[in-house]
UniProtKB/TrEMBL annotation:
Reaction(s) catalysed by this chain's protein: 8-oxo-dGTP + H2O = 8-oxo-dGMP + diphosphate + H(+)
Protein name: 8-oxo-dGTP diphosphatase
Domain of life: Bacteria
EC code(s) of this entry: 3.6.1.55
SUPFAM superfamilies: Nudix
Domain annotation Nudix hydrolase: ranges: 3-128
Amino acid sequence: MKKEIDVVGAIIIKDKKILCCQRGPGRALANLWEFPGGKIEENETKVQALKRELREELKITVSMVEETFDFTRYEYDFGFVNLTTFICYLESGEPQLTEHLQVKWLSPQELDSLEWAPADIPTVEKLKVTEIGEE
Ligand SMILES: Nc1nc2c([nH]c(=O)n2[C@H]2C[C@H](O)[C@@H](COP(=O)(O)OP(=O)(O)OP(=O)(O)O)O2)c(=O)[nH]1
């Protein structure tokens, strides 16, 4: 049976742009673009997992809408990824590259210029038809 992998991702908004992160080489989905975040650990809520991942991998803190923006499920060769995304607003810090290759701030209409991880594509489509405002 394939693994179930529960993942949280952050749609971080600043000046009506969204933070897009390119995965590093030598790991699953290398070089594809994603919403920053990661796997939910045991005894952690999704919100806690996301705040932890953002502190660890981008050195930022965010305020977030604690209501799911989107949920997608995608079958990769290594397992099923269940991806829950949340809208977040940058509160402090500038994103630092600790494991990503690069980051870009793009408007919803510009998101298509990147090659996204397959699980993210329905969420990217949804963002293109969503009014993203300020906090
Ligand atoms: N973080 C993140 N992962 C995503 C997205 N879309 C998508 O398919 N994934 C996949 C890639 C990975 O297989 C899995 C998340 O694992 P990860 O490697 O980013 O998370 P992690 O830091 O907790 O894991 P690890 O490397 O420590 O094992 O979900 C996304 O938008 N954001």
